[in-house]
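Support request from a user on the community tier.

User writes: "When I paste my structure tokens into the form, the page sometimes reloads and wipes my input. The last time it worked, I copied everything first. Here is what I submitted, just in case something in the input itself triggers the reload:"
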């Protein structure tokens, strides 16, 4: 759970460690990309949940953790609740923001990661949508990483 007024993320202590980590990544995605004051946050809760859970999947995938058995049904359920658009389109509409949110979280971690955290096909999908990849609409002010041959490099 994210407590906006106090800038806190709370995770239940009775969960197994992997579920706690996944939940923390999900809530960090909300905290990073879904400020109540941000006018660019999608207005539909389904899209916000798709973004948070998809970003959590990318963050954990960058650490060799597969959350797809939980994430795929969760994202599918929320995407199917978005009115006026099919679930696949709902997920596709979130791709650029999901990537920006996930990279913003990854930028602030000093953990060992897979050399390239982008999932296969994401660049192609974003190119097809001609979606912007900058963080001007969300996650602004977060330090940006730089990709190197061996992985990511973060600013001091």
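"...and here is what came back when it finally went through:"
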């Amino acid at each position: 759970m994210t407590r906006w007024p106090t800038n806190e993320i709370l995770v239940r202590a009775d969960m197994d460690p992997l579920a706690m980590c996944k939940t923390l990544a999900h809530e960090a995605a909300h905290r990073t990309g879904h400020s109540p004051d941000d006018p660019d946050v999608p207005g539909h809760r389904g899209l916000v949940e798709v973004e948070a859970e998809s970003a959590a999947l990318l963050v954990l995938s960058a650490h060799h953790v597969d959350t797809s058995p939980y994430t795929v049904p969760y994202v599918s359920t929320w995407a199917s609740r978005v009115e006026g658009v099919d679930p696949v389109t709902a997920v596709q509409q979130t791709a650029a923001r999901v990537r920006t949110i996930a990279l913003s979280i990854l930028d602030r971690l000093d953990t060992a990661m897979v050399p390239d955290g982008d999932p296969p096909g994401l660049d192609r999908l974003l190119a097809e949508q001609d979606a912007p990849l900058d963080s001007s609409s969300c996650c602004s002010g977060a330090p940006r990483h730089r990709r190197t041959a061996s992985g990511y490099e973060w600013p001091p």
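Agent notes: The reload is a front-end session timeout and is unrelated to the input. The mean pLDDT is 77. The radius of gyration is 15 Å. Escalated to web team.
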